[in-house]
Design brief:
The complex is a heterodimer of chains A (840) and B (309). Chain A is an alpha+beta fold and 840 residues long. Chain A contains 30 helices and 19 strands. The chains are: A alpha+beta (840), B alpha+beta (309).
Amino acid sequence: MKEIEDLVSSFDEMVTGEGSIRPHWRMLTQTVWGISPQKLAEKQMRAATQIAGADELIALHEPGATAATRALDLLPLILPEPEWQNLKCGLAQRARLLNAILADLYGPQDLLKEGLIPPRLVFENPAFLRPLCYVEPVGGAPQLYFYAADLIRLPDGEWRVFSDRTQAEAGVGYALHNRNMLARVFPEAFRSTEVRRLEPFVELWQHSIRAIGAALSPQPRIALLTPGPYNDAYFEHVLLARELGITLVQSADLTIRGDRVFLKTLQGLVAIDVIYRRIDGDYCDSLELREESELGVPGLIGVARRGQVAILNMPGAALIGTPGLAGFLPPLCRRLLGEELRLPAVTTWWCGQEHALREVLAAFDKFAFQPVFDLDPVLIEPSLLSAQERAAFQKRLLADPGNFVAREKMAPSQAPCLSVDLERTKTILAPQPIVLRVPCLWDGGDWSPLPGGVARVVSGQSIYASALRPGGVTKDVWVLAGDEHQAAMIANAAPTTASTEWEETVLRSRTADDLYWLGRYVERLDAGMRQFKAVFRRLVGGGMSPRDRAELGRLAQALAQTGWIPRTLVSAAPDGSMFGDGLADAATDGTTLRNCVDSIRRLTVAVRDQLSFDLWHTLHRITGRSFARFGTSRRGADVLIEAVDRTVNDIAAFAGLASENMIRGAGWRFLDLGRRLERGIDVAGMTRGVMTGPATQFEAGLHLVLELGDASSAYLLRYRFEPHLSRALELVIADRTNPRSLIFQLRRIEQLLQTQEMISAELPALPTLQQAIVAIGAFAFEISQPERAEETILSLLALLDTTTDLLAALSEGITRRFFSHVASTRLSGIMHRRSQKRNA
Amino acid sequence: MRYAVRHETHYRYSAPVDLGLHMIRLMPVDLARQQVLYRELTIEPPPATLADFSDHFGNIVHHAAIETTHDHFAVTLSATIEVAPENPSPSAGPAWEEIRSAMQLDGFAAPTPVAEFVYASPLARIETGATRYAGHSFPEGRPIMEALRDLNARIHTDFSYAPNRTDISTSVAEIFALGEGVCQDFAHVMIAGLRGLGLPARYVSGYIRTRPAEGDAGRVGADASHAWVSAWCGAELGWIELDPTNNLIVSGEHIVIGYGRDFSDVTPLRGVILGGGSHSLSVAVGVTEVASPTEQSNEDPSSPGNEAH
């Protein structure tokens, strides 16, 4: 990249101008030189694998999009204690200042009246959210609870703020994760150096966030509001919610009743005192802010205005990150804090003033420009433009100079990055330019920076793209410890008193709903796959027996009934090519298949934080690799059998993991309930399908039911190859020991309904369920005797019908009782206007 | 002059609504020239919570939450307002460029509260077309009032009144392309034009008197809410209000609900509901002149001294 090649004079973090290694880097470099290049390469590999694993575990991306790869360089950025102290004071002061300006702009606006801030930078700024004016933060919280600064070190060795991140910024989670990874793969590095720990910062955070909530409730309930799993930083949201012991929620989990914000849980509505938002401020409330937002809670600002919820940061906080304001901070600091600004920004001009415009035009190529209200802009660098483009841009600038901000282009410092040349067995420390992000947090009295951060290696992308995204190479940041400071930091953080017990006992309604449907769709996919498997097994190999043909016809009927294949295939000759090809098409591309897989994929994402890695991984395999195999297969029956087999196996693995590795909480119960209900409906439907055909085909039909339920061998073992229709039926319907029988599902459902939350739900179908279990248990299967057969079949059909209706009613009852308030609100479009023209 | 205002808004939903959150900006404010003697907002079904506050522009806002299942939603404003007649022909004022240069002042426009209305806003962006159109009324050195009157009259002549051709989010550029619209659109055209020239302009939401025909009792319910423009004319004249829809300088016949940068700041009703299907809407507005206190009749729907909020 051109501008980086030009950086001959940039500051080197590790090496002095005379070529010697700076003292605070010596221990680390010695450690690195003491390890063989092969070993280092191995460590690098392990770090990459672990990060990829962690990302796959949590960070998701829109289907079809490729995930940005995150990488960790094994060499940290090292900051010696005195330098850190300087930076720390500068950051705290800057946060204090930005907060004070916000408090004024959302209040009396004296700073505008005094001519310290140009009105245009506020009044035309889309980040100035007027509904937040005079909304006081709750619990003594500041406007700017959380602040992150992106810094670069200039050639003179001074750190300068490159960008003030005041919206809802990523940082701490990545810093914690980087530290964790590094300690795991490169423990040697930590042995020789005393590095400031990051944990005290997390403890401070837990403490301060609960102290804010304490204004509303003695046991404050705190939620991290995330846009959801498809957000770039979802990885961090999950990680932080865990570290902080707070509940991870999305828009649909919250509702407003009366004066409070509530979390929808299985146990009912639970009041929330503090929302740590990771959605942008203008998306917080579709009633008062962006009407198209589906990420926030309608009415939230009203609740904040009445002092009944703390929102961190206040939704209007992004205003102070407007780049054009940076140049006005030094006088504002004197006015508001009575101090000189300790940590200024890189030279930044708002072009709306004559002298600024003159400066900028005089050294046009030394600046990078951006529209003034664009927080993550594409930068315009005149030096990189053609003469024609350059003139065009200059014209744009002069037409409305106040619409642009210019930043002097500066060479960021370079830090060593590890690379290993295995061919020549050489370890190389290559200097690369870096941007440092340091997150800061309001600790109850002042702002405390994290003793560390994330250093981003600038390559291929401009240093001006300052948002921290999952992609790219990052470094851990080490602050070398002076012991007394470490002790002080811990002392400041009083022990966290608030319990997080309720987090474990409370299940979000949305999650219960999602787990229930996940169970149903997995089971539905399983049933479909088993039927396809039975079909393909009969299609491979040569000749087709009349019995095969009959069974295939029956299978086609069953598949069509549940929508897996088109109805037209049912009448096709089973040994013709139309039948085989049609089924192959349906298996690879059918709507039911797609619907199941898409639903499972969506629900897996939605309940991501409830699943263990193994469970998540198995589900991911079902919707990912196994499903892909259908698409790429040559569609020969043998290939399809293999694809189907794998899916069936994956589902079995999922079922096994769910029963072995999942805590038997409400979440598990809803997952299991979904599976049992779906299987019950499936078995009842299949059996009913068999029984409605001509009596001569019962046997073939029953065989199929046994085969699909994996019960053929049990049946054969038990009844020694003697076909015995009554016993076969009994095995499928009423055998309590067969985990695929109808009664097994019903009894399991009954058990699940005996738990506290279900009993209190008073589901109307429960007594009917118990009656059905008794009726099935007492049913006499006497269809072998011709004289009794017809009567038996009729009463069995009636019983199956009742059971099917019952299960449907039960599902509806559960949905209505537990999930009815899951549906999210929508904008009514209630905005009207009429106009009057007077008849003069 | 004293007016009785009644403004009814009635929504009927095709499917039940479980939860309705509404933001209401219907309450007229007290102003130097406008004294609200009585105002009451009735909401049907009765909301579980009703909170009111004053917004950034000083307008009165109500938040109503209806938490029981309902199939209709009705808001009615009843108010009695004494409006002082204003001088319909203010002095010509300073040359318009004087006002423009006070808004520039090397990046620090003054006075600050006025400056808020000189910049682009969501529904009144600065657009070349609108600026050029307004510019024809602003030749060099022309006194501000003269120029404003001319622009007001031109908009009245050049745009035809056509309900249902535009909606609440129609942009100024689209209004120019159509050449027609309603009062909101004409106000936006004028505001965008003035701002494009560097002059501050506000959007006013309110009512205009329904002028009864001879011997007629007035057409209560035939009309709806109205909108016009408030333009900054320098420290001496202050804000002057003009109604481009009727080619009037506002004086004694307009009742103000509130001010904003454009319609989006003063939307009378905005809501979020859970459920509801489709809805039908009916609106009725009546603004009638009532007798002054000495000859107050029994027909007066409202009585002074009974203020809500």
